[in-house]
Amino acid sequence: MLITITRSGGFAGLEKTRALDTSDRADAAELEELAQRAVAPVADGYHYRITVDDEVLDLQDPCLTDDQRTLIRTVLDEGA
After folding, report:
1. Domain residues of the chain, as ranges?
2. Please, how many CA atoms are within 13 Å of residue 29, restricted to the half-sphere of its CB?
3. Phi and psi, residue 54, nearest 5°
4. 27 falls in which pLDDT band (50, 70, 90)?
């Protein structure tokens, strides 16, 4: 299994992408199980796409910050 992760943002706005092939690793089964659980949708969880001008962010429950929850709740309750 090939697992690729890209991290971006932070103070310096740097992007870092790394890939890991699990095929020859002793911990392959554990990493593959973690990967499968990480990408599996949350049962009955909501997915959100927040667009601010030209920036797009895709999110899903339960992985939201308090600020994201407040923004989502306000826009869904009061937006047109």
Report:
1. 1-40, 43-80
2. 1
3. -105, 5
4. very high
